[in-house]
Amino acid sequence: MLFKSKKAAFSISIAHGVLDAIYDECDRYDVDETGGRLLGTYRHEDGRYDIEVTAVLEPGPNAQRSSTYFLQDGAQQERLFRSLEA
Hints:
By secondary structure, the protein is of the alpha+beta class. Helices cover about 30% and strands about 35% of the residues. The protein has helices at about 15-30, 75-85; strands spanning about 10-15, 35-45, 50-55, 65, 70.
C-alpha cells in the first residue's frame, strides 16, 4: 500500500430530550422535509473528536416545508439562539 490514512476516532452523545424532540418533529412532518439546529460542544484531542449534543432549536413557526424542500425560520432560530447565548 502506497498511502496509508489514519481515520480520526470520534464519539457522539445526544441528550435524551434532544432525541425526543427530533423524533417528535419527524412524526409531525412525516411526509415533508424538516429539521432544526443542533447545539452542543466538541473536544478534539490526540486525533479524537468527542461531540456532545445538548439542545436543539426547532425549525420555527414560519419554516417552509414540502416533500423536497425545507427552509428553517431563521428569525425565530436567531431569537432562540441569542436567548440561550445570553
